Amino acid sequence: MHAITRSGWIEVITGSMFSGKTEELLRRLRRAEIAGQEIAAFKPAVDDRYGEATIGSHNGRQWEARVVDAEGEGLWDVRDELNGEQVVAIDEANFFSTELVDVCEALAADGRRVIVSGTDQTFRGEPFEPLPQLMALAEYVDKLQAICTVCGEPASRNQRLIDGDPAHVDDPTIMVGAAESYEARCRNCHTLLTD
Ligand SMILES: [Zn+2]
């Protein structure tokens, strides 16, 4: 990434679950840290996971993060809690309301490098705000692919499973406390129950 002026910018790291988004975010944070840049990392408060204050990937690497409200005015704590940090990281961005778009725009206008990571599709395979808006406004977008659990092709979709069966199309987009699981799947292997 080249900062050719003193202005800030937005980077989006997106793709399905298991595509390595958090690993890529951590890689960028580590490079910034090595360069001696100050970093602030945030993640949303999502009911049952409230209090987990680390950004972690499946390979065990972690980064300390501050937990902020996922919607409403509390989301502006991301900006209010900053001091001189040049780099602001936001993980699990799909759990934030679209207010996150304005927050990220303000951070970039403040001259900060904003790195946002989150999935861009719901379990239905539809655009999952706020990522689509952020992808449009960002200077840099990387859309990562996972590998389809069924056929081995590149996967861009999140397959939600309830007790091993495909979720119903009418299920809520964000389920809290449910016994659901997810697989990365390609367009052909992604399925939904419709009746
Ligand atoms: Zn497939």
Describe the structure.
The protein has 195 residues and is α/β, with parallel strands linked by helices. The protein has a single domain (9-145), classed as P-loop containing nucleotide triphosphate hydrolases (Rossmann fold). Helices cover 18% and strands 28% of the residues. The protein contains 4 helices and 13 strands. It has helices spanning 21-34, 77-80, 99-109, 131-137; strands at 9-15, 39-44, 54-56, 62-64, 66-68, 87-90, 113-117, 140-144, 146-147, 154-155, 157-162, 165-166, 180-185. The strands form 4 sheets. Strands 5-2-6-7-1-8 form a 6-stranded parallel sheet, sandwiched between helices. Strand 9 and strand 10 form a beta hairpin. The longest helix has 14 residues, at 21-34. Bound molecules: zinc ion. The site of zinc ion has 8 residues, from loops.
